[in-house]
Amino acid sequence: MKFAIISDIHSNLEALKATLNDISKRDVDKIICIGDIIAKGTHVKECLDLVRQHCDIVIQGNCDRHFSATHDLTDPFFSEQEKTRIQYNQSRLTMEDREYLSNLPFCFEFYMSGSYVRLFHATPQRDNIPLINLDSIQDKYNMFLPTEKTVTQKIADVVIYGHIHHPYMDRLYNKTLINVGSVGNSFDVIRNDMKDSDILETTRSNYLIIEGKYGSTEYHDDITFQFIRVPYDIDKELKDENLNIEKENHRCELIQGKYRDMSKINAYYTKLGIDINKI
Ligand SMILES: [Mn+2]
């Protein structure tokens, strides 16, 4: 069995089409989306429709939950920018779309070639955490532990998640931690003009293929993890940008691979005693 795992499409239609086209050439049995179909980009409804058409399993991301929910926009908690983001996304969706997004599951789990694999959007506790990639060993270990939101109370052997928008694989305590990266909003937070490579090393679409014996609790068969990067037409995606109220931030992320709110990232690392501009 071969599963393609996609995440963080963020209303980027060209990226999603290029990714689905690449998947279609690889003899994949199922496509699993692990969240954040909408928000940020222009093509909200188009991306949701394509995901619903092509994906066999869809997990809820923080943006799917937040932008499909009904909010009291007179609450001073919402900034003008946040109100506009919510209104833009909801203006592109039907009530049925919003119900679909708000009822998506939190987690999906299965055995594959002996390994217990758990998929969720960000962490087993919640779908939203700061965008970090220098977590402590303890933070990483916690990613494998069950919570009241996981399907079973097993400790996972393999965890596959999204949310941070850049792919990586790590190993600890015989376990494997994988981030699939983002289809439509790939960026890196560790940046330095003197050290950075070509930006296309970052800004292409990212997804993962996992292949092995589905449902098998025995270590008799091989298991494969394959990271794939797909180029897509960024200029074409940005052509309809006049519709999008977040266009400056959005262009910066898609073209330069830079997260829109670096002050949030800087504040997070400062608390850990790390000056992100000096690493
Ligand atoms: Mn996201």
Provide an overview of this structure.
Helices cover 30% and strands 18% of the residues. The chain has 279 residues and is an alpha/beta fold. The chain has one domain (2-278): Metallo-dependent phosphatases (Purple Acid Phosphatase, chain A, domain 2), CATH 3.60.21. A five-stranded mixed β-sheet has the order 3-2-1-9-10. Helix 6 links the parallel strand 5 (115-120) and strand 6. It is globular, with a radius of gyration of 18 Å. The protein starts with a strand and ends in an 8-residue tail after the last helix. The protein binds manganese (II) ion (MN). Manganese (II) ion binds at residues 8, 36, 61, 63, 163.
Q: What descriptive keywords fit this protein?
A:
single chain; 279 residues; alpha/beta; Purple Acid Phosphatase, chain A, domain 2; five-stranded mixed beta sheet; 18% strand; binds manganese (II) ion
Give the SSE layout:
Layout: E1 2-6, H1 13-24, E2 30-33, H2 44-54, E3 57-58, H3 62-68, H4 80-91, H5 95-102, E4 107-112, E5 115-120, H6 137-142, E6 158-161, E7 168-172, E8 175-179, H7 200-203, E9 205-211, E10 224-230, H8 234-238, H9 247-256, H10 262-271
Parallel strand pairs: 1-2, 2-3, 5-6, 6-8
Antiparallel strand pairs: 1-9, 4-5, 7-8, 9-10
Bound molecules: manganese (II) ion (MN).
Summarize the structure.
With 279 residues, the protein is an alpha/beta fold. The chain has ten helices and ten strands. It is 30% helix and 18% strand.
Gross geometry:
globular
Q: Biggest β-sheet, characterized?
A: 5 strands, mixed
- Strand/helix succession: EHEHEHHHEEHEEEHEEHHH
The CATH homologous superfamily is called Metallo-dependent phosphatases
Our measurement of the CA-to-CA distance between the termini, rounded to an integer number of angstroms, reads 41 Å
